[in-house]
Amino acid sequence: MAIPDFDVDSILQQLTLPEKISLVSGRDFWHTTSVPRLKIPAIRLSDGATGVRGIKFFNGTPAACLPCGTALGATWDPELIEKGGALQAREGILKGASVVLGPTTNIQRSPLGGRGFESFSEDPFLAGTLAAATIKGLQSNGVAASLKHFACNDQEDHRMSVNAIVTERALREIYLMPFQVVQQIYPPWTYMASYNKVNGVHSTENIHLLKEVLREEWGFDGLVMSDWFATYSADKAILAGLDLEMPGPSYARGAALRHSILPGKVKEYELDACVRQVLRLIKRVLPLGIEEDAEERTDSNPDTSKLLRSIAAESIVLLKNENAVLPFCPDKFTAVIGPNADFAAFSGGGSTMMTPYYTVSPLEGIMSECKQVGYSLGCGGWNKLPALSRLTKTKSGLQGLTMAVHLEPSTREKRELLEVIHVSDSVMDFCDYKHKSMGDDYLFYADFRGTLIPEESANYQFSCSVLGTARVFVDDQLLIDNATNQVRGDTFFATGTREEFNTIFLEKGRAYEIYVDFGSIATYTLEVASTAPFGGGGLRLGCTRVFDPQGEIQKAVALAKAAEQVVLCIGLNGEWESEGFDRDNMDLPGYTDELVRAVAQVNPNTAVIVQSGTPVTMPWVDQVPAILQAWYGGNETGNGIADVIFGKKNPAAKLPLSFPSRLEDNPSFINFGNQGGRVLYGEDVFVGYRYYEKSKTPVAFPFGHGLSYTSFHFETLQVKNDGESFLISVDVANTGVADGAQVIQVYVAHIDPLIPRPLKELKGFKKVFIPVGESRVVDIRVSVRHATSFWDEDRNMWLSAKGDYQLLVGDSSANTPLCHQVTVEENSWWKGLCN
């Protein structure tokens, strides 16, 4: 049935005060509130930084997962990113969602930020340009984007309470600039305000951010919503222009907002301004024709797989390739080694996680291309034990476990069976699981069963962490009791228990029955200290074969010696980089560095594949001939890696953020994380490459760096200045041995600035495909205002400062061989967008 259209102003006049109050808060976790009397439907929102999950965390509807944000940033390709946004729009419609919560375009001021992998870049211009491309892909297909997180949500430590202390200049030039660029190119229909404070005021109550900058200066005329549970007041948030509190039922509005209206703390016309934006958004997405509580659907198809594979391959950065070791030959015996080889690290953790249509591990991708492959683990690379579900099968032969749900505990002889569910992943969040027979306390019990048949005789270590209670049995033997004496840990957003372990010897080929007796969060013996509703709680079950680390390295070395070429897959995964916590350091896990050195020493044809969302230390960088940065590559992770390794795809990606050699070299090193309730942005505007160049601090790999299997030559730089923009033209030739693409990067340097400025800043770029032996004239237009301005804190305006500037053109921030000098004759101050 088609949803009726409506006139916003007419409906607004007909609404009662209670109806208005209800509209500015969500109905539930994922829907706005409807007004049936006036036929105003609820609309659905869904997480969507790199894919659209739908509304279920537990046993979610399978979805298309794109590479992570930094991987998308590494493509430097707005046209390709727009196609990814269009795919997200199609996926959103399949999931019944009219609003996708993304893209994320915060700044990676530190490699340690837990959600750094979600954002595009340390550079605000690159980040904003690619965010705009994602939004165009979404909204040109009718699905609203919610650009996030506005603003300075650059760490997870105390993210709801921490006060980001930042100068107005740094705020404008770095942290608000990606959003400003988006407003200039392709504005979103909604913004999401962040959890944290900015200069003493929470973003959701921040009049300076939401009214003075976003609406008045930039002319944004859409909806502003809160991040989930980030609305902390009834009146202040309304007065600042926060239109929608999410999720519902309301925590901060409802009766409290009505009480604020009665004494006039909030005028009804001020409430109306927020209601109007909610109604406008609902009206805007009506053409999608999505029913209010639509069933979620899937559509895994060859076209989607092809696009995802292309984006995964396009995102992989060739950091190093001495002696042209890569590409490898698929006809040669190839050793595939490392903790990330037989594991698809397709995404970071937190709200970006979803149930993928499928995943392809690097080992699977390489085996599909290479005739002779040997595999060795080499070392462990996990933060928590790998999921038990990888090793178990149900009675019907499906991978995973069978979950039988009851209202009574297992001590009851006769209890009613509510339902049986197949669980493919033993990392389970029951926040949104509820059977119709359950009460509001989410009290339920579940038996998890599966069969484990070991591939070799060995000791096996099991683990269990829980938000609730759990006991793990192997063939009726109690192995782990995580119900009697529970200890809090870092699981389930630091609300669940620590990971409890025990070890048992298992024989090769024998079938072992695994049984887990689980009680939901209502049985938890520890206090749940959080405002977020965890519903039924959570359960995480892990298992791995116990091995001697040195012995495992020696197995890998023996394989590497026997092989003609080695693919060494290392890095992090979604349990190292995730929403909810920040990393402690930049180091790779466990024995990874030792493994890399040992393998590289015995085989000179070794390519190291690093998977991480943000930089890691590489103390062995000079000891290996080839390094690829492969990020988290989505559904097609392994195929994308294989395409680049074997030369089906000539790498053209560039780093969207600098890779420092050490954490201590990072400009935020002494000012990252919560310190007495605040975080001081002491590096000011000198973030990323702006700092490394200004301080002459060497890096492992510079911003914008990325090699190719071919070579390019830049020549004949010409610049035309019409007063409004610089038209930059450069000849680029492919002088190598293969067709390929190059990213032409334009940086601007103020020769003699009045105040300290970065040595140069990215102001334009274009990715161009050039066949071998051919050349192209590449034109890039750069706004004079955007290229020459800094924030004048004295006048509280942008200043396009008079003086001489260099336009620098090259293929990375460290390699700009072409230069042209231009002059700005007069100072000019301005506000608004970069016209």
UniProtKB/TrEMBL annotation:
PROSITE patterns: GLYCOSYL_HYDROL_F3, PA14. The keyword Hydrolase applies. Pathway: Glycan metabolism; cellulose degradation. It catalyses: Hydrolysis of terminal, non-reducing beta-D-glucosyl residues with release of beta-D-glucose. GO terms for biological process: cellulose catabolic process. Residues 396-557 form the PA14 domain. GO terms for molecular function: beta-glucosidase activity. Keywords: Carbohydrate metabolism, Cellulose degradation, Glycoprotein, Glycosidase, Hydrolase, Polysaccharide degradation. Coiled coil: none annotated. It holds the Pfam family PA14. Its EC number is 3.2.1.21. PANTHER family: BETA-GLUCOSIDASE, BETA-GLUCOSIDASE-RELATED. Belongs to the glycosyl hydrolase 3 family. This is beta-glucosidase.
